[in-house]
Amino acid sequence: MKHLVKKQTALKCVAVLALLIAGSAAQATDYNYSETYAPVGKAARTDAQLQSDTAACDGAVGAQVGGPSASYRACMLQHGWRFTHLERSKAPADPYFSSNAKVAPGHFIDHDNGMDCVNTGGAEVCDPPSGTVHYFDPDQGLPCTRTGAMSVCSNM
Hints:
Layout: H1 2-28, E1 31-39, H2 47-61, H3 70-78, E2 81-90, E3 98-99, E4 108-109, E5 116-120, E6 123-127, E7 132-137, E8 142-147, E9 150-153
Helix pairs in contact: 2-3
């Protein structure tokens, strides 16, 4: 019986950890992060060199979201750049998006198609919204209005 309790407790811990990670990822996308690096030593370095070294470290360590990891900082230091600070600013609101649709708990309105969606097992399942949604369709490059299943996109 103790073995079963331990499994349930471990499973609950994994579920809580998954929710925390998902919540952190969602919060990270609400902000823009700007990393600042300074050249090591007295030699002047160009922005092109910084961009090249950043691309090299992105490839070696992985692109960073929400601040550089210790391994990313070490990579940049090997390329002659010292991390100085991180600035976080609120991401600008989507100027094309507005909605009066009623959304069920756990659902969201997709900003690219105006549909009422829910993530299920890594896939996004969408239905027409119950209301009107104004959004920008990146495939057409046009602002659109969706009411139910009907969507109208126009540059007028």
